Amino acid sequence: MDRHWGPRRRGTRARGGTALGRAGAIAAACAIAAAVPATADAGSCPSDSFDRGGTCTTHRAAAAEVARITRAMMAERHARAMIVRVEIGARTVVRRAFGTSMAGVPARPEMRFRPGSMTIPLLTTLALQLQDAKRLDLDAPLARWYPRYPNADRVTLRMLASSTSGYPDYAQGNQAFVTRWLGDPFRRWTDDELLRYAFAQPAACAPGACFHYAHTNFVLLGRVLERVTGRSVATMLTRRFLRPLGMRQTRISKLATVPEPALHAYVSERGVYEESTSWSPSWGLGDGLIMTTTARDMAAMIRAIGSGRLVSRTARRELVAPLSRGLEHAPPIIDYALGIVVAKGWLFQNPQFNGYHGIVARLPVRRMTIVLENTLGPLADPQSISATLFGRLTQYLTPDRGLRF
To answer: Domain Beta-lactamase-related spans what residues (predicted)?
Structure first.
């Protein structure tokens, strides 16, 4: 299932793991690459270099070191394939793929995959746009639109967007759902079915008292936005983001097909290593957020969100405000904001969904973007390989903002 920071979204897990997980903890590691023998002053690096912790490092040297770190990580954690994209400023420094999509078919950087929770920041940005337009108030209670759900008079839209509503998940920790899902992974789920599984469980806490990632939150938030606008989430995301941002390879669909060229995914959920590329994605985040995409398109998305240009300055501050901090069950080291994770200036999401594991990240102060997507080999470590690699790359590329988990 898809894992996230805090509770992850559905992803895959080998060695008896579960695809319904939370984002894997990121482990940090340091690496040193060849550098231009000069100390960097602000803005003083040559055009073919960047400031890496006070030292001007060439893009070519950085690309070579990123490749070395990636290969070592894949061997250590038994990844099958890894797509890597690193952008620094206006330059794409790394655009590569490692390993194989299928037997005898090398992975390629343009291959399509399921982004899972990488798409959540689009939904929360849409909500902020509607608030900017005075059509929505994130502090309004869910009961204004859907009074029949538990605690709807106390759960606000901001709580839904930040996973602080206390609502239970229909996936993670829900054995009845997991059993049904694994019994028929090709089943097409409706949002109403998923919500019934969610609310058959007890609440995780009182509204606003804890951080508890639940797909339930984003299904409900999407429904509210549809009721406010009279348009589907899919239509709004396409018109406001996919087309304007040039995300031409991204498709919104609950169908199981991943368009070619597809990065094929594999899981060990049912006691055997098997392909999961065509498993139904319909249990994900609700209509409109289930997509197929590419690393290039995800980079375009996170650049735009990180820049703040899609919303007002006030809304940008709301987007990254650390709403999970200090709450019960809040994840250590990182903060969960409005559908996005914040740590040392990095903004990111870390999904695991039907065998696809990834990271999409932006460090606005350095104009740096990292997109990773991996699949698992039969002996793969159950933790998120992309998350661990992301930590190691931040330690190398941005030593002063490297992430240790």
So the answer is: 66-372
Q: Which two tokens stand for residue 51?
A: 């400031």
* Tens digits of residue pLDDT in 19-63: 554 333 333 333 323 334 455 655 689 999 999 989 999 999 999
Cα–Cα distance measured from residue 126 to residue 252, given in angstroms and rounded to the nearest whole number:
16
Distance, in Å, from the CA atom of 196 to the CA atom of 201, rounded to the nearest integer, reads: 9
The token duo for 118 is 């990488």
Is residue 17 assigned to a domain? no
Domain boundaries, position 111: 49-360+375-401
Identify the CATH number of the domain in which residue 113 sits.
3.40.710.10
The radius of gyration computed from the CA coordinates of the chain, to the nearest angstrom, equals 20
| Residues 368-378 pLDDT 10s | 999 999 999 99
Query: Is position 115 within any domain?
Result: yes
Residues near 127 by Cβ (< 8 Å), separated by ≥ 6? 136, 138, 157, 161, 221, 225, 338
Do you find a cis peptide bond into 261, omega within 30 degrees of 0?
A: yes
- Tell me which DSSP letter residue 334 carries: S
Q: Which residues pair with 368 in a beta bridge?
A: 88, 363
What's the domain count of the chain? 1
